[in-house]
Automatic annotation (TrEMBL):
The keyword Disulfide bond does not apply. This is Flavin reductase. It holds the Pfam family Flavin_Reduct. It comes from Brevibacterium luteolum. Residues 30-176 form the Flavin reductase like domain.
Length: 180
């Protein structure tokens, strides 16, 4: 039997409460998953707000629906609480600098996109120029789970940049996918 066929060792037992060892192990195991990197943006009044995320997913094809996980205590979540729409810009492999800039803690609440090239989606919310894909969503639900809130949006329009490889996150670093 090859090592990859051997049973996995789970830590801790399912009935054990979450502790520091489990949290550390969870972060390590979850860090092994390759995740696309995106920027979520919304308008607070007329001011654009944005943050880098790697926890988002397509929920349904009918109706087209996306969800994104945002830290509940963040300024971005405060903005998403009152926003009617959001964009999810899946960054291109060459946009690592944007991911890092918008992922830094302590970003200013206003002007965060002043140095980032953007366009307006049909909803009026900005999206990142040159992104591999963009989803323009009407926010339909917010569901608080543990320390984060899942913000759900019905996709009203979407687009892709053909031939552009997406930026990916793996083991606390950035990269991209290779051809098939």
């Amino acid at each position: 039997m090859a090592d990859s066929d051997a049973p996995l060792s789970f830590f801790p037992a399912p009935e054990a409460p979450a502790d520091e060892d489990l949290i550390r192990t969870y972060r390590q195991v979850a860090g092994q998953m390759v995740r696309p990197v995106a920027v979520v943006a919304c308008l607070r009044g007329r001011q654009p707000h944005a943050v880098t995320v790697d926890s988002f997913l397509d929920v349904s094809y009918d109706p087209p629906t996306m969800a994104v996980s945002i830290y509940s205590g963040s300024r971005m979540m405060e903005s998403l609480e009152i926003a009617e729409a959001m964009t999810i810009s899946v960054l291109a492999a060459e946009q690592k600098n944007i991911a890092q800039w918008l992922g830094e803690p302590g970003q200013p609440l206003y002007g965060v996109l002043d140095t980032v090239p953007t366009h307006a989606a049909p909803s009026g919310v900005p999206y990142i120029a040159g992104a591999a894909a963009v989803f323009d969503c009407r926010i339909t639900n917010r569901l608080e789970i543990a320390t984060h809130t899942l913000v759900v949006g019905e996709v009203r329009s979407c687009a892709e940049t053909v031939g552009v490889r997406p930026l990916a996150r793996w083991q606390d670093d950035y990269g991209t996918v290779t051809g098939r």
